[in-house]
Amino acid sequence: MIQHPPLTEGVYYILLSLYEPRHGYGIIQLTEQLTNDRVKLGAGTIYGAIKTLLDKGWIKPVDDDGRKKEYIITSTGKEMIEYEILRLKELYDNGIRITRGDND
């Protein structure tokens, strides 16, 4: 398996938000909903991240029909999410194993 750098929590939620087409404000709203308002992404953060994710090919614009610009995750972005889920599961599993005293 190819090793990827860990995603920041903000990028993780941006990518998750884009499994359906969304514009920046929609990403902010869904992230707050998913995290019970724990993660609040500012407009500057969102639009800077969108530019970076576009450059990496992890998201792409949806055909513009004159409304707010929407984006959707690409297959490469989905690969990054899948890797991150496995990485987070390993962190969780190791934490549970060690804190419960099952170090074998």
Structural class: mainly alpha
Order of SSEs: HHHEEH
Low-confidence stretches: none
What do the pLDDT scores average to? 91
What is the straight-line distance between the termini?
Answer: 25 Å
Q: Over the alpha carbons, how many angstroms does the gyration radius reach?
A: 16 Å
CATH fold annotation: Arc Repressor Mutant, subunit A
Strand content: 5-15%
* CATH architecture call: Orthogonal Bundle
- How many domains is the backbone divided into? 1
Task: Give the overall shape.
Answer: elongated
Tell me the name of the CATH class.
Mainly Alpha
CATH homologous superfamily heading: Winged helix-like DNA-binding domain superfamily/Winged helix DNA-binding domain
Question: Which strand order do you get reading across the main beta sheet?
Answer: 1-2
Residue share in helices? 55-70%
Query: Biggest sheet: strands, sense, closure?
Result: 2 strands, antiparallel
Number of E-state strands: 2
Q: Number of helical segments?
A: 4
Offer a few descriptive terms.
6% strand; 4 helices; Arc Repressor Mutant, subunit A; 2 strands; two-stranded antiparallel sheet; 104 residues
